[in-house]
Amino acid sequence: MTRRELGLAAGAATLALGDHASAQDKTKGRRMATPPLTCDCHIHIVGPPAKYPFIADRQYTPPEASLADLAALRARTGVQRNVLVQPSFYGTDNRCMLDSLAQLGASARGICVVEPDIADGALRDMDKRGVRGVRLNLATTGFSNLGTVQQEIAALGARLKPLNWHIQIYTSLDNVVALAPVIAKSPVPVVLDHFAMAMGDKGTGQSGFDALLKLVKDGPAHVKLSAPYRISDHPPVYADAAPLARALIAANPAQMVWGSDWPHTVRTQGKGPLDIHPFLVMDEPGTLDLMADWAPDARVRHAILVDNPARLYRF
User: Fold this and answer.
1) DSSP sequence for 215-279
2) Residue 280 in 3-state DSSP?
3) 0.85 cut: is pTM over it?
4) pLDDT confidence of 152, banded at 50, 70, 90?
5) Is the peptide bond before 220 cis (omega within 30 degrees of 0)?
6) Which domains does the chain have, with CATH numbers?
7) Residue in 206, 209, 155, 217 with CA at minimum distance from that of residue 182
8) How far apart are CA 65 and CA 266, in angstroms?
């Protein structure tokens, strides 16, 4: 367990569970109204283990996070669209995500994890079912040889371009910088999870942040303004994440999307990979309200919450 994960577990205890308001009362006590068709671009569904078994070599075991739980999240945030991201504990078995997409219909899209030799026909089938990209989770599965990862990104880009998909990468800022040359040449968009893991306490002057801004400004890099609790030890307002968010938005607002990272998985100290690791409790409406500070201009905010994801995920 990392120092930051220890901080997450301690900080979560200070956060209140979001009010389970009805959809009609979703803005009560909120700092901003949620625009219609707002998209939460980073969530996970965790189904019954008997139906959707976890991989044997997972790093942690989560509780269930059902579609009914997602409906409650939508009610208390006012969010109407979601992007379901394949989590590490399912490996390349995308059935839970795909079955969830089938039930959510036009209100959701998916990001899969696949083997490098997956058939083109299988990718086309997933496109018909609402999948719009492939995730490389280098943070959980490990960052292998730089050259190997660069080749994987280049090969994926060539295969995904005809589908109008993108590559989603979860890794550290240092690794993003190392991969910058191949990201800059990608024929498809590259979406970087969770602020590209730039650390809030290191500020906009941290090593690699200028390179990240260039990738955003010039393209094709997009950044998810998601899960500030993963880059900041200062809940609930994550003040040190705000300068990073504002700088990224200023660099290219058209390349920004937002996500809650619900249900907030975390590896818990003292628990083994087969033990249940409880989710962190987060105030999702309050976290969404941070966008009022990060993007004070309502038009920019609308682009990040509605227009950009509609284009990127083809809603």
Assistant:
1) HHHHSSEEEEEE-GGGT-SSTTT-GGGHHHHHHHHHH-GGGEEEE--BT---PPTT--TTSB-PP
2) coil
3) yes
4) very high
5) yes
6) 3-312 (3.20.20.140)
7) 155
8) 14
Helices (H), 78-184: 95-104, 120-128, 138-141, 146-160, 173-184
| Alpha carbon distance 94, 86 (integer Å) | 7
Amino acid letter at 91?
A: G
Which token pair is 110? Answer: 């998916």
Residue pointed to by tokens 């010039």: 218
3-state secondary structure of 189: coil
Amino acid code (one letter) for 247: A
Longest pairwise C-alpha distance within the chain = 51
Give the separation between CA 216 and CA 184, rounded to whole angstroms: 9
Q: Residues 285, 19: contact at Cβ < 8 Å? A: yes
3-state secondary structure of 161: helix
Task: State the pLDDT confidence band at 213, using cuts at 50, 70 and 90.
Answer: very high
**Pairwise CA distance, residues 261 & 264, whole Å:** 6
> Which pLDDT belongs to residue 26?
54
Four-residue CA torsion sign, 182, 188, 193, 199: positive
Q: Looking at residue 191, what DSSP letter applies?
A: E
Q: What is the pLDDT of residue 314?
A: 98
> What does the buried/exposed string (b/e) look like for 170-192 if buried means 16 or more CB atoms within 10 Å of the residue's CB?
bbbbebbbbbbebbeebebbbbb
- Contact of 216 with 250, CB cutoff 8 Å: no
Nearest-angstrom CA–CA distance, 40 and 259: 5
